[in-house]
């Protein structure tokens, strides 16, 4: 049976939803205007009237496009469907113009990880590189990790530092973040401004000194669909970064979540490749207590 590729339409959303992650399925029901604004491209592969593959991508940073998912129905794997979708996505973006690169970020625990990376290599993509580490586990296990939390918080307070929620810190904290970014002290990847729409103001922490100056932050968002709380970014200025203050901020966020939502609440802590010390802490202290741990890998192909 021949295969055909076509752009997914709203009336096909229900039939195609099972071929992408639950978080991305709503994109299939977007209006044409929403698709244009987000540069969303969803391509389906059909065998007759049966969908056998789906790729979903949206506008990324700069002129890039993020490939969110590329899924092939189990019965159709290893039959060239993935390659067909990847090429069709690439050709569609080149034809429409305005896109400089197509990028994919994916877990090294992804089913079919080896096959997917082999496909990317065959299609001229860059060798995948680790971009961050993630650890997932219940809040109650963080007390095994943060055995010295009380001591860290006590020392922090004794030296005039406080850990506030983002709700308590308010707009003054955002103004300081912008200043730290403008001077280059705060790296772009650490910016909490990328997360403002989904940042949880009571679970995200801000570290301030005796003068109220922002010394660091931890971002947290509630991923209700996955029944977990996600800490994607944490950063502290020197010299406090070398003194355990970042761990103190994570510990305080976890403590508050446990008090409010129960000790079985699931949390995911992520640390970027630009934080080797934090990665080592996660691997050494968090991983033995984790439900799972992985690395997020990134690969890309230039289009223009």
Automatic annotation (TrEMBL):
It comes from the Bacteria. SUPFAM superfamilies: Acyl-CoA N-acyltransferases (Nat). Residues 3-159 form the N-acetyltransferase domain. PROSITE patterns: GNAT. This is N-acetyltransferase domain-containing protein.
């Amino acid at each position: 049976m021949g295969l055909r590729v076509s752009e997914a339409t709203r009336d096909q959303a229900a039939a195609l939803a099972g071929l992408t992650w639950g978080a991305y399925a709503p994109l299939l029901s977007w209006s044409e205007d929403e698709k244009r604004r987000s540069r969303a491209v969803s391509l389906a592969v059909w065998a007759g009237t049966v969908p056998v593959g789906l790729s979903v991508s949206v506008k990324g940073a700069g002129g890039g496009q993020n490939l969110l998912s590329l899924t092939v129905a189990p019965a159709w794997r290893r039959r060239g469907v993935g390659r067909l979708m990847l090429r069709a996505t690439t050709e569609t973006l080149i034809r429409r113009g305005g896109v400089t690169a197509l990028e994919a970020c994916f877990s090294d625990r992804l089913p079919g990880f080896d096959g997917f990376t082999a496909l990317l290599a065959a299609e001229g993509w860059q060798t995948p590189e680790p971009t961050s580490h993630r650890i997932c586990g219940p809040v109650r296990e963080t007390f095994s990790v943060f055995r010295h939390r009380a001591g860290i918080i006590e020392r922090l307070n004794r030296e005039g530092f406080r850990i506030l929620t983002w709700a308590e810190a308010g707009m003054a904290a955002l103004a300081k973040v912008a200043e730290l970014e403008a001077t280059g002290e705060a790296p772009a990847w650490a910016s909490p401004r990328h997360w403002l729409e989904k940042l949880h103001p009571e679970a995200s922490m801000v570290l301030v000194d005796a003068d109220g100056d922002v010394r660091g932050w931890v971002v947290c968002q509630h991923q209700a669909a996955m029944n977990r709380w996600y800490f994607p970014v944490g950063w502290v200025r020197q010299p406090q970064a070398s003194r355990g203050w970042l761990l103190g901020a994570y510990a305080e966020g976890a403590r508050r979540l446990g008090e409010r939502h129960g000790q079985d609440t699931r949390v995911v802590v992520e640390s970027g490749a630009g934080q080797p010390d934090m990665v080592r802490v996660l691997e050494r202290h968090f991983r033995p207590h984790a439900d799972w741990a992985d690395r997020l890998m990134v690969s890309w192909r230039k289009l223009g």
